[in-house]
């Protein structure tokens, strides 16, 4: 057997905006039999963390380091909010060349590298997947798009919000003129179906003398919520009692499964009063429940497609030698776009003009809906808030690992150790025997930063060791510091001026007043208060001081832009998008498609 044949394959599956309890094995009523089976013979992690939003997580995942180093200290879509603030290295808005990307390193170590799905790490040709180490790639470049590939005429009164999310796809770096699917044709385009089928095709055509790294980042269940009615209608009536009833059911199931403590105090729901279920009209409740039914259908469909890929691996005899991860990229999406002062009226006018959001049409190619903060917090409970926040609801996600050499004797185990998305790359490189390029040596003609994540190889070796007492093994499974020990650096988060830092079970959080915060650092003991309900800053000033010193160290080491609290409204400075580090992401979008939108180039 050759050395390559002994190396494991890697399959990395990422869901988009999936909440902590949105799949069956994490307490959901949504039917996900394939993921449930994967967890049954693998392990689930309850304290796995990402960034608070899509592209920062993807940057951390594919670099093994902090998003402020890898180029997504600020998402490209948000830089216009304060151009001067984010005119800094590490805030380019794309995966920069200061880091060695995971597929680049694996490619240099004789792996065949594949991507089928959402990219969101750069729009210009120099930053597409084919330039960052993927041998073959079919990629959705922006952060989201219509799942059927349909777009109305963008030049007729369209606003920037929609101009940023066109169905912009590339096949090995070349623009694809995707044919929209307006008839629910099973052979036509639907995002999750196509990504899975395309990956299976890539795998079937791969060189058989190389191990593979396959990246399957779905764009589901990100809005717009769209799926075939046969999936949506499986959940008809399931959500008629509203989001609070669902939240209580999910909490009860999480406790039953042992995924949260039985005495946990969940954080209160944070949402506009007018969105209270009892205050909505009957029609509004029907429309809201239908949006949630559509969301559930999207997750159901995604699971079905994951099953197709797993079955293919079993059919070709590669499943047992494949290291498989399933995770979400951040917490559930809870933003109510119609309520944003600077955009609400405009966005609703455009939706009314171009889309049909009538009850029966929700989920179709020409509908455009999201489900809002109350449904999102049914999925993130017991945690606080949701996507875009550095509270637990925004950064704590479901995680499944299945790798028979590690998990065949641990089937169904729940691991409570703290871990982060930055750990994935060092773990995979360790298993592949592929050293990360040293900071002191050139990699592909450039110097690159070190990884901040930590390999799990030693941890799982210990966990599977025959030696050791029952108590020692229990500590490895339930101990918060079993992977990241007290000797390891603290872990920090920052996005849009919302920040956090964690060391062991202690966590500090900072949020502006306009963003559900106090504009002061809060302190939480997550071992007793995972819902972040009891601010201990006044009682534990020395602990706050200790963690703030670690925060200043984190800011300095990672180039975080930190200072005055972020303004609640855009800041108009004497600088233009094209002049800041990273340039203008909207122009990058227009540049691919000169016949669309306002920017004719």
UniProtKB/TrEMBL annotation:
GO terms for molecular function: arylsulfatase activity. Gene3D superfamilies: 3.30.1120.10, Alkaline Phosphatase, subunit A (3.40.720.10). Pfam families: Sulfatase. Residues 8-434 form the Sulfatase N-terminal domain. SUPFAM superfamilies: Alkaline phosphatase-like (SSF53649). CDD domains: PAS_like (cd16025). Belongs to the sulfatase family. PANTHER family: ARYLSULFATASE, ARYLSULFATASE FAMILY MEMBER. This is Alkaline phosphatase-like protein. It comes from Dendrothele bispora (strain CBS 962.96). The lineage of its organism: Eukaryota, Fungi, Dikarya, Basidiomycota, Agaricomycotina.
């Amino acid at each position: 057997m050759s050395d390559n044949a002994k190396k494991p394959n890697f399959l990395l599956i990422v869901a988009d905006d999936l909440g902590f309890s949105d799949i069956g094995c994490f307490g959901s009523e949504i039917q996900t039999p394939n993921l449930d089976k994967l967890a049954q013979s693998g392990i689930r992690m309850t304290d796995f963390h990402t960034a608070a939003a899509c592209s920062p997580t993807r940057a951390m995942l594919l670099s093994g380091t902090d998003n402020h180093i890898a180029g997504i200290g600020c998402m490209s879509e948000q830089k216009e909010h304060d151009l001067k603030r984010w005119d800094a290295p590490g805030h380019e808005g794309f995966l920069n060349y200061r880091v060695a990307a995971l597929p680049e390193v694996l490619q240099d170590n004789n792996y065949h590298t594949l991507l089928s799905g959402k990219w969101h790490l750069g729009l210009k040709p120099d930053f597409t997947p084919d330039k960052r180490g993927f041998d073959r790639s079919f990629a959705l470049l922006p952060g989201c798009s219509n799942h059927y590939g349909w777009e109305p005429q963008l030049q007729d009164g369209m606003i920037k919000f929609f101009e940023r999310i066109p169905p912009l796809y590339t096949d090995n770096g070349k623009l694809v003129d995707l044919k929209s699917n307006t008839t629910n044709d099973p052979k036509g385009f639907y995002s999750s179906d196509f990504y899975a089928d395309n990956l299976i095709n890539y795998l079937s055509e791969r060189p058989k003398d190389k191990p593979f790294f396959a990246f399957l980042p779905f764009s589901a269940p990100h809005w717009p919520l769209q799926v075939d009615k046969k999936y949506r209608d499986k959940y008809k009536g399931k959500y008629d009692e509203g989001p609070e009833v669902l939240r209580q059911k999910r909490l009860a199931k999480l406790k039953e499964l042992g995924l949260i403590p039985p005495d946990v105090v969940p954080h209160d729901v944070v949402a506009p009063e007018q969105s209270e279920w009892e205050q909505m009209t009957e029609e509004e409740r029907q429309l809201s429940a239908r949006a949630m039914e559509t969301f559930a259908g999207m997750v159901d469909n995604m699971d079905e497609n994951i099953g197709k890929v797993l079955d293919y691996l079993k059919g070709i005899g590669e499943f047992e030698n494949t290291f498989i991860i399933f995770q979400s990229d951040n917490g559930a999406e809870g933003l109510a776009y119609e309520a944003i002062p600077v955009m609400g009226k405009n966005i609703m006018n455009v939706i009314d003009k171009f889309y049909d959001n009538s009850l029966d049409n929700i989920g179709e190619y020409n509908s455009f809906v999201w489900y809002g903060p109350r449904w999102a917090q049914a999925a993130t409970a017991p945690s606080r808030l949701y996507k875009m926040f550095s509270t637990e609801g925004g950064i704590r996600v479901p995680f499944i690992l299945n790798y028979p050499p590690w998990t065949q004797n641990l089937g169904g185990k729940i691991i409570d150790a703290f871990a982060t998305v930055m750990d994935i790359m060092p773990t995979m490189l360790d298993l592949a025997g592929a050293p990360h390029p040293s900071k002191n040596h050139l990699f592909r003609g450039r110097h690159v930063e070190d990884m901040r994540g930590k390999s799990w190889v030693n941890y799982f070796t210990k966990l599977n060791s025959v030696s050791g007492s029952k108590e020692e093994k229990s500590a490895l499974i339930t101990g918060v510091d079993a992977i990241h020990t007290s000797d390891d650096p603290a872990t920090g988060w920052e996005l849009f001026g919302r920040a956090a830092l964690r060391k062991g079970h202690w966590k500090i959080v900072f949020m502006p007043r306009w963003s559900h915060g106090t504009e002061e650092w809060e302190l939480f003991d997550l071992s007793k208060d995972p819902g972040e309900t009891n601010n201990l800053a006044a009682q534990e000033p020395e602990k706050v001081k200790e963690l703030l010193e670690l925060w200043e160290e984190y800011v300095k080491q990672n180039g975080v832009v930190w200072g005055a609290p972020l303004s609640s409204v855009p800041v108009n400075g004497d600088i233009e998008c094209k002049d800041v580090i990273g340039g203008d992401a909207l122009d990058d979008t227009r540049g691919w498609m000169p016949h669309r939108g306002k920017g004719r180039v």
